[in-house]
């Protein structure tokens, strides 16, 4: 196969919490970019990637600390444009002959700040970043600051705590800013990235139409004449994976839909019907609810639940793979954030917030190789690819649903009684959201049954039933999220419906926690 080579932009990650936002901003400009931890970026990798431009991310360290993160010297010698952000600016100045000073109260900046252009070549900033010639709002998060710029650099913008907020060596096409243009609170940050990639000569050749054709060719080359098992959940990731694989290899694909008894109300029937009615794909409906619920009986620890479910998923896939001749591959809807998060910037394992049933490596004994056609994509790109593939809008726009299903929306011990109550309550909640025309405004919404009973009164009688938590968030990619601001009228109406229509619930709460500090799911 003749491999299509995209113009590539390399993001060297020094540990910023928002490095992924840089990649998202670039992908929105149809620029293909890759994030690599700084210690993995060697001269060999630079040669392999052959980036057309480089971005140095922010980070929590200090360039004055011995052993602090650095890019390879070869990065500066490639002759390509480089943009340094926050710590990336400081490391660039330090490496190229400037000076960085430790943060003091007067120079540290956290949060909203304003950059004012200098009189040095004002035409450079006007149109490249600044909107007009006034001051520009930015988002700062730095203690240390550049005290002396490197030879060849000029100052184009200052802020109260950063005398060198915007600097550039125009001859070498090195640019450096102390603020974070990738975050929402730098309103004109997208303009900076747009002009940086234009200056670097990117043509915007990263499109879902091109990705579709390239990935089909790659799948055919990887799989050959073998058969592929695809784990189908009915969510957008697995659905897009399945349709893409079917385009590539047709009858060599068998989808396995595992009904683990932890699905939403009537979900199994809906997913099976959609695929059997709309696509000529071999589909096994594996009703393994007794197996999963049996193994989860009496288990309350969330990590133990996830590990049990993950192991059982693998066992079930292996079981059906053994029944299919020449099945040598397992397809998964792994996304780019999953890949990035598996390696921390320091090279060690990232802190495990919670395990994913399809992340963390399959046992070697499973005997199946992985096909992961979405591993270079963010969530919104998967949806765009779904449109390219003709997937029904009702499935493309579905809210994300976790692999462990309702198990992680049922804190504490899981019982069939609690699951039945939760399924009904969740169905009423989603129905309310749709009736009010809010479904597409919300990234993800669900109900969770809490591990507590509360006293209530119904028809002059005492009740002692479960409490229910409602959750709804807005997000772009699920990495950060904020709660959806329902009106009190909506919440009151929804609570009344749930309590009236679902036996076993007598109290309803609304979760207004953002991510961070919370996670989207309760477990």
UniProtKB/TrEMBL annotation:
GO cellular component, one term: cytosol
Residues forming the catalytic site: 86 (nucleophile), 180, 182
This protein's encoding gene: guaA
Annotated keywords: ATP-binding, Glutamine amidotransferase, GMP biosynthesis, Ligase, Nucleotide-binding, Purine biosynthesis
One Pfam family in the UniProt entry: GMP_synt_C
Domain of life: Bacteria
Subunit relationships: Homodimer.
E.C. number: 6.3.5.2
Purpose of the protein: Catalyzes the synthesis of GMP from XMP.
Molecular-function GO terms, alphabetical: ATP binding; GMP synthase activity
EC class (word): ligase
Protein name: GMP synthase [glutamine-hydrolyzing]
């Amino acid at each position: 196969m003749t491999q299509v080579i995209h113009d590539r932009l390399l993001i060297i990650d020094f540990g910023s919490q928002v490095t992924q936002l840089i990649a998202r901003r670039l992908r929105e400009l149809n620029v293909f970019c890759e994030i690599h931890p700084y210690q993995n970026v060697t001269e060999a990798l630079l040669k392999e990637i052959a980036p057309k431009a480089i971005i140095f991310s922010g980070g929590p360290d200090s360039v004055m600390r011995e052993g602090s993160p650095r890019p390879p010297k070869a990065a500066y010698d490639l002759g390509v444009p480089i943009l340094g952000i926050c710590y990336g600016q400081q490391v660039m100045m330090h490496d190229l002959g400037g000076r960085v000073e430790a943060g003091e109260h007067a120079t540290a900046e956290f949060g909203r700040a304003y950059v004012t252009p200098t009189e040095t070549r004002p035409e450079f900033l006007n149109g490249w970043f600044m909107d007009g010639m006034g001051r520009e709002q930015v988002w700062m998060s730095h203690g240390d600051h550049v005290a002396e710029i490197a030879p060849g650099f000029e100052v184009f913008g200052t802020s109260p705590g950063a005398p060198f907020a915007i600097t550039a060596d125009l001859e070498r096409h090195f640019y450096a800013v102390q603020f974070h243009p990738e975050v929402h609170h730098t309103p004109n940050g997208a303009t900076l990235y747009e002009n940086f990639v234009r200056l670097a000569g990117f043509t915007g050749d990263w499109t879902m139409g091109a990705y579709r054709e390239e990935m089909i060719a790659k799948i055919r080359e990887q799989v050959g004449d073998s058969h592929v098992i695809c784990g189908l959940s009915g969510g957008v990731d697995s659905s897009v994976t399945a349709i893409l694989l079917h385009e590539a290899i047709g009858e060599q694909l068998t989808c396995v839909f595992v009904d683990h008894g932890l699905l939403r109300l009537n979900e199994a029937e809906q997913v099976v019907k959609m695929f059997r009615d709309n696509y000529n794909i071999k589909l096994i409906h594996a009703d393994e609810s007794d197996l999963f619920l049996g193994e989860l009986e009496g288990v309350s620890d969330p990590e133990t639940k996830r590990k049990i479910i993950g192991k059982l998923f693998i066992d079930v896939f292996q079981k059906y793979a053994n029944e299919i001749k020449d099945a040598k591959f397992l397809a998964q809807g792994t996304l780019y954030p999953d890949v990035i998060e598996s390696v921390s910037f320091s090279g060690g394992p990232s802190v495990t917030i919670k395990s994913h049933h399809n992340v963390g490596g399959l046992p070697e004994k499973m005997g199946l190789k992985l096909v992961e056609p979405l591993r270079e994509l963010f969530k919104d790109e998967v949806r765009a690819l779904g449109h390219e593939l003709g997937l029904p809008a009702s499935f493309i726009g579905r809210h994300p649903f976790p692999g462990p299903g309702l198990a992680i929306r049922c804190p504490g011990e899981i019982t069939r009684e609690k699951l039945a109550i939760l399924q009904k309550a969740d169905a009423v909640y989603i129905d309310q959201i749709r009736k009010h025309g809010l479904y597409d405004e919300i990234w993800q919404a669900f109900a969770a049954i809490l591990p507590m009973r509360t006293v209530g009164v119904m028809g002059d009688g005492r009740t002692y039933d479960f409490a229910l938590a409602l959750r709804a968030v807005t997000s772009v990619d699920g990495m950060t999220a904020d709660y959806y601001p329902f009106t009190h009228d909506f919440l009151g109406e929804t609570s009344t419906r749930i309590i009236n229509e679902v036996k076993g619930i007598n109290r309803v709460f609304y979760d207004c926690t953002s991510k961070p500090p919370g996670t989207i799911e309760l477990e």
